[in-house]
């Protein structure tokens, strides 16, 4: 059906057909009626993008969010078919935590503030619960290799008898959050342990430059030797790139680019990425996993747009075939893999569409967003939220709505159709904040999303890091001052100064050995390289094409 133009109320409206379903290997196709009905798309005159789709995405969020609050809180997740809740990753209201910054992106500041207070008053992490280290991103790095266990008890630590076998992503997905935590707290230990874990994986790669899927964190031996870009490995590569951008760390980017060469040499075929044996490079699984759909977005962050678009279009053909991405897709057969036919409303392909649309403006990427809204609403929407699609062949549903639906899927969809959102700031606007230690720049753009789509402002991170180090210097000076004051108290009068305190001129008397130890400890903490807050050249580059270290201009 050709498109038709209408002009109601000053809006440019287009009647567009949705894509038809592609046949399966037996020549049959799933009923495509749910996603090929033509829809009326009205363009926002200010942005030129479909305004009504953005509002539908917002409505999707609140249908799921309100259902969680009414039926599932304080449990981790909503069960949409039975309208109740259950705990999954740690029993700390995970869906509410995951949805928090989506509220801000949708512009609901008052609800954001209310939820922050609710979480502060009600969430307790000192509980006797076994939690995934990857999913909760908290502790457990005390191993001979420096690579963390996969599971930890939040109250007691690592349980006796806990398996030392951990997936690669579970080891290499900490640098973004832990470096941020070090900046906010002034304690470098978080970033240090995350860097050690990254380096141990780097040192464990095979002679042909690949890493496997699971490794023993006590011995450093690979247990699962399948190499690819999908489940079990994915966010390790993601965090090398995002950690490099966030921390302006060329070493992390160089590590990723070396991996990228090996991945292209051994796993890349016809713009698909297969699974291979990490030591030999021979194909072990000719499948596409839905979790791999983040890869085109990651390629866009290093400026590899052409390859990213070709791979994205391959993945999009799978979406059009089923109205969603099955967990596993057999590439030679062109169909789902048995027992992996489901789609739990994952965000990865939508995430890549958002990044690539920011880089290219290609309308094909908006088509994916539109198709995603149609499919999810028609197949997955139920009275109490949105349900996981258990089988894309017949659209049977499962009684689960994972927290990433609100944290990632809806967020990336909304940002795809909201080009003026503050997240997309290219550095042209910012907030200058005056602090006791000087001026800081905040909100200048270049936000880094962690693997659960929670944005981190790099300007705030570097500003906080600078302030913490200056604070350490002030604390050291104050200790010296009070030590001096105690030693001379019987000979000096106390005076008050109307201005800020300044250290006494001339050589300082020696302080106690305890103070020397503290000063050495603080000095050690100050070895982290600093960036000047007002100078943020990386923000506009990231927002435009992501060519952070490859751009020679």
From TrEMBL:
The residues the entry assigns to the signal sequence are: 1-21
Family listed: Belongs to the glycosyl hydrolase 47 family.
Provide the residue span(s) of the region labelled Disordered: 493-526
Q: Which residues form the active site?
A: 135, 234, 327, 348
GO MF:
calcium ion binding; mannosyl-oligosaccharide 1,2-alpha-mannosidase activity
Q: Its biological function? A: Involved in the endoplasmic reticulum-associated degradation (ERAD) pathway that targets misfolded glycoproteins for degradation in an N-glycan-dependent manner. May initiate ERAD by promoting the first mannose trimming step of ERAD substrates, from Man9GlcNAc2 to Man8GlcNAc2. Seems to recognize and bind to exposed hydrophobic regions in target proteins.
Q: Which UniProt keywords apply?
A: Calcium, Endoplasmic reticulum, Glycoprotein, Glycosidase, Hydrolase, Metal-binding, Signal, Unfolded protein response
Coiled-coil boundaries: none
InterPro entries reported for this sequence: 6hp_glycosidase-like_sf, EDEM1/2/3, Glyco_hydro_47, Seven-hairpin_glycosidases
Sites where the protein binds Ca(2+): 451
A GO cellular-component term linked to this record: endoplasmic reticulum quality control compartment
| Localization annotation | Endoplasmic reticulum
Q: What is this protein called?
A: alpha-1,2-Mannosidase
Give an example GO biological process.
Answer: endoplasmic reticulum mannose trimming
Report biased composition (Basic and acidic residues) as residue ranges. 514-524
The source's superkingdom equals: Eukaryota
């Amino acid at each position: 059906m050709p498109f038709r133009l209408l002009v109601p109320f000053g809006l440019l409206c287009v009647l567009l057909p949705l894509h038809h379903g592609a046949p399966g290997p037996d020549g049959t196709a799933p009923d495509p009626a749910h996603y090929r009905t033509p829809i009326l798309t009205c363009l926002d005159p200010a942005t030129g993008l479909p305004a009504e789709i953005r509002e539908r995405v917002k409505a999707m969020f609140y249908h799921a969010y309100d259902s969680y609050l009414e039926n599932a809180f304080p449990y981790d997740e909503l069960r949409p078919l039975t309208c109740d809740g259950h705990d999954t990753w740690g029993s700390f209201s995970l869906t509410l935590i995951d949805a928090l910054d989506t509220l801000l992106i949708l512009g609901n500041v008052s609800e954001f503030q209310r939820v922050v207070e609710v979480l502060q008053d009600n969430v307790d992490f000192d509980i006797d619960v076994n939690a995934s280290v990857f999913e909760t991103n908290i502790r457990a790095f005390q191993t001979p290799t420096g690579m963390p266990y996969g599971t930890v008890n939040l109250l007691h630590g690592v349980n006796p008898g806990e398996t030392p076998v951990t997936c690669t992503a579970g080891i290499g997905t900490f640098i973004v959050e832990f470096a941020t935590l070090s900046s906010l707290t002034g304690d470098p230990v978080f970033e240090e342990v995350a860097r050690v874990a990254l380096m141990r994986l780097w040192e464990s790669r095979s002679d042909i430059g690949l890493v496997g899927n699971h490794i023993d964190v006590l011995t450093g031996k690979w247990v699962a030797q399948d190499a690819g870009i999908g489940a079990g490995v994915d966010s390790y590569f993601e965090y090398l790139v995002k950690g490099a951008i966030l921390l302006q760390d060329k070493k992390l980017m160089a590590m990723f680019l070396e991996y990228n060469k090996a991945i292209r040499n051994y796993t890349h075929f016809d713009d698909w990425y297969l699974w291979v044996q990490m030591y030999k490079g021979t194909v072990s699984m000719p499948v596409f996993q839905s979790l791999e759909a983040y890869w085109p977005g990651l390629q866009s962050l290093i400026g590899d747009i052409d390859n990213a678009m070709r791979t994205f279009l391959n993945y999009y053909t799978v979406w059009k075939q089923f109205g969603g991405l099955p967990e596993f897709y057999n590439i030679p057969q062109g169909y789902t893999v048995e027992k992996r036919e489901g789609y739990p409303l994952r965000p990865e392909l939508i995430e890549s569409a958002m990044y690539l649309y920011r880089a290219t403006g290609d309308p094909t990427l908006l088509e994916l967003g539109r198709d995603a809204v149609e499919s999810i609403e028609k197949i997955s929407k139920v009275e109490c939220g949105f349900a996981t699609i258990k089988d894309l062949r017949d659209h049977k549903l499962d009684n689960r709505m994972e927290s990433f639906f609100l944290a990632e899927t809806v967020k990336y969809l909304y940002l795809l159709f909201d080009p003026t959102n503050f997240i997309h700031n290219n550095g042209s606007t910012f907030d200058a904040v005056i602090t006791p230690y000087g001026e800081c720049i905040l909100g200048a753009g270049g936000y880094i999303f962690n693997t659960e789509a929670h944005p981190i402002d790099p300007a705030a991170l570097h500003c906080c890091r600078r302030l913490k180090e200056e604070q350490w210097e002030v604390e050291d000076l104050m200790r010296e001052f009070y030590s001096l004051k105690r030693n001379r108290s019987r000979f000096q009068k106390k005076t008050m100064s109307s201005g800020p305190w300044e250290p006494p001129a001339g050589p300082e008397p020696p302080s106690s050995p305890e103070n020397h130890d503290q000063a050495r400890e603080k000095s050690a903490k100050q070895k982290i390289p600093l960036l000047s807050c007002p100078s943020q050249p990386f923000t506009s580059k990231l927002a435009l094409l992501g060519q952070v270290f490859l751009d020679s201009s």
